[in-house]
Design a protein that fits this description.
The complex is a heterodimer of chains A (303) and B (277). Chain A is mainly α and 303 residues long. A two-stranded antiparallel sheet of chain A has the order 1-2. The N terminus of chain A is likely disordered. Chain B has a six-stranded mixed β-sheet with strand order 6-7-8-3-9-10, sandwiched between helices. A four-stranded antiparallel β-sheet of chain B has the order 2-1-4-5, with helices on one face. The chains are: A mainly alpha (303), B alpha/beta (277). At the A-B interface, helix 8 and helix 9 of A face helix 2, helix 3 and helix 4 of B.
């Protein structure tokens, strides 16, 4: 598989690339859910460490992975600030008066905001590992297999998968065509890249219209080609490729399940046995309690 | 008989009042195993003819029969499509998957063929068109000729008895055209597949068993290519040119050289000229 020039896929060979796409999708879903169960800073650090190791094993450069978070940096900071301003519980640190509005900035608010930002970046980083190491084709094929149970409630999973795979197939062609049309319009004196935002959008119209016309023509021809190749001829459609689980897939899965178990232990078990330190309405959670106690002891020793 | 058309008419409705008959009262029989070239100018109805063969279009009147099954019979339509494989003009618009072998497997998968047999068919079809080594590649950066051979492989995997090439060489460069033609002739010779090659390049019809010239929805000429080429003047009237070698021979004849008749390619022309010297 080469020449896949779109999407995020990073074409190298690695253990992570090699894991079955179904397993990777399952792991990613499970990961996204469990990220919301991470409560202590210790657990955050642990999961970050885990991701760092996974990225190292996948041979995708750190810089490339980090780029995926760059575009979302604004959203990240924005949600963090909102969290700081609108959390009223916890011990107040600062009070800001804006007109009649009193805004309390509390230690708990900052705590929430930082954790929210961490959670968010974990989500983006983790899911981008999936798209970096799995080709779009593998993704659609795997999704088709995973969604198969939905056929029992009459959702046309196979048709959806075909639509997705055709869309993926036509992206490079359409991009090439857009380039051609843009060049053709430029050759006739079209001014596509100057002026303000609205002018630019308006200037794109003579590019979009031919592009749409040609896309519809393609669709028409493709429909004939699908028919000519007996699409829908049989209800019992077969598949040439079957997904077969390798032992390495299972190992990857169980390693990940172990991590999820640790996250849950951290959230529910530690707090149940070890009393949380009394810091007013500020909460210390999970393994952070141990760290806090440890720091306290060190402080006592030093003093 | 592989293909039988009986008084077939197909009309497009432009609006309530205007209709255009793309194919007019056409009757035709094609024997199994023949290589038929169908030539016609733009708008002669040749593409409509192609689409009538596998039921993509249904005749307005008359009947199209493929190995005895009428395309009007809704129950037989998939059997007909299984028998008549069709390759279209633009190789980019007939591929479904991003990987060669997945694309070739698409047809047999639709038919519910067993997995092991699909694998065999994919290998067979790809080796028939000489593309086996590309099975794991993506078609995106291939040449036109390669893509079109791939499209043929996709159709072959359905194991058709008739292969229709609907202007499949029109968008290709000369090398791509000869690649596709070579594959079509091999399939005809080695596997006994009936080939209906629709084109507007007269010289591509040279090696066909039978040449049908269409004009204005009807058959203008039907016979062995060399016989049809003799009607070069009438062919010219319907905007079709005979191969340049034939034209050359005709022009030389006009200025008084004894060129005989029936010269269709370079070798024959050179030989004749040498004889005269």
């Amino acid at each position: 598989m080469r020449d896949i020039s779109f999407g995020q896929y990073y074409p190298v060979k690695s253990y992570v690339h090699n894991i079955d796409a179904r397993i990777k999708i399952l792991i990613t879903l499970l990961y996204m859910v469990s990220v919301f169960f991470i409560t202590s800073y210790t657990a955050f650090a642990g999961v970050f460490l885990f991701l760092t190791i996974v990225i190292a094993v996948s041979h995708v450069p750190y810089r490339t992975v980090l780029r995926s978070i760059k575009g979302l940096l604004f959203l990240l900071i924005f949600t963090a600030i909102i969290n700081i301003f609108f959390t009223s519980s916890g011990n107040p640190l600062l009070q800001i008066k804006i007109g009649k509005l009193m805004i309390n900035i509390t230690d708990q608010g900052i705590n929430f905001a930082v954790k929210m930002a961490l959670r968010f970046s974990l989500l983006v980083l983790g899911s981008s590992i999936l798209t970096f190491t799995t080709t779009p084709t593998e993704l659609t094929d795997a999704l088709e297999v995973l969604l198969k149970p939905l056929t029992y409630i009459k959702i046309p999973v196979h048709d959806l998968a075909i639509i997705m795979s055709i869309a993926l197939r036509f992206i490079p062609g359409l991009m090439e065509e857009t380039d051609k049309i843009m060049m053709a319009q430029k050759a006739r004196g079209a001014n596509l890249d100057s002026g303000n935002f609205f002018k630019k959008i308006k200037a794109m119209l003579p590019v979009l219209i031919p592009l749409f016309v040609s896309a519809f023509r393609r669709a028409d021809e493709l429909a004939d080609a699908l028919d000519a190749r007996c699409y829908n001829a049989s209800n019992k459609r077969t598949k040439m490729k079957v997904f077969k689980l390798k032992s390495t897939d299972l190992i990857a899965f169980f390693v990940f399940v172990a991590i999820v178990v640790l996250i849950f232990l951290d959230k529910y078990l530690v707090g149940a046995f070890v009393p949380s330190p009394d810091l007013g309405s500020f909460e210390v959670q999970g393994l952070d309690i141990f760290i806090y106690n440890l720091l306290l002891k060190i402080k006592v020793l030093i003093v | 008989m592989a293909v039988v058309l009986e008084n077939v008419t197909y009309s497009y409705n432009l609006d309530e009042m205007h209709r255009i008959d793309a194919v007019k009262n056409l009757s035709l029989r094609i024997k199994e195993g023949t290589f038929v070239a169908l030539v016609g100018h733009n708008g002669s109805g040749k593409s409509t003819f192609a689409k009538l063969l596998n039921g993509l279009l249904l005749p307005t009147s008359g009947e199209v029969k493929i190995f005895g099954n009428s395309t009007l019979d809704g129950n037989k339509i998939y059997e007909i499509r299984k028998d008549v494989g069709m390759v279209f003009q633009n190789p980019d618009n007939q591929m479904i998957a991003s990987i060669v072998e997945d694309d070739v497997a698409f047809g047999p998968e639709n038919l519910g063929v067993e997995r092991e047999e699909i694998k065999e068919r994919v290998e067979w079809a790809l080796s028939k068109v000489g593309m086996l080594e590309y099975r794991k590649h993506t078609p995106f950066k291939m040449s036109g000729g390669q893509k079109q051979r791939l499209a043929i492989a996709g159709v072959l995997a359905i194991k058709p008895k008739v292969l229709v090439l609907d202007e499949s060489t029109a968008m290709l460069d000369p090398q791509g055209r000869s690649e596709v033609l070579k594959v079509a002739h091999e399939l005809n010779r080695e596997d006994g597949i009936t080939v209906i090659h629709i084109t507007h390049f007269m010289e591509e019809a040279l090696d066909a068993d039978r040449l049908i010239v269409m004009n204005d929805g009807q058959i203008a000429f039907d016979g062995k290519p060399r016989e049809v080429f003799k009607h070069y003047e009438k062919l010219k009237e319907i905007k079709l040119a005979v191969p340049w070698e034939t034209q050359m021979a005709i022009s030389l004849k006009k200025v008084g050289l004894d060129m005989g008749s029936g010269i269709v390619n370079e070798e024959e022309l050179v030989e004749k000229l040498c004889q005269l010297l």
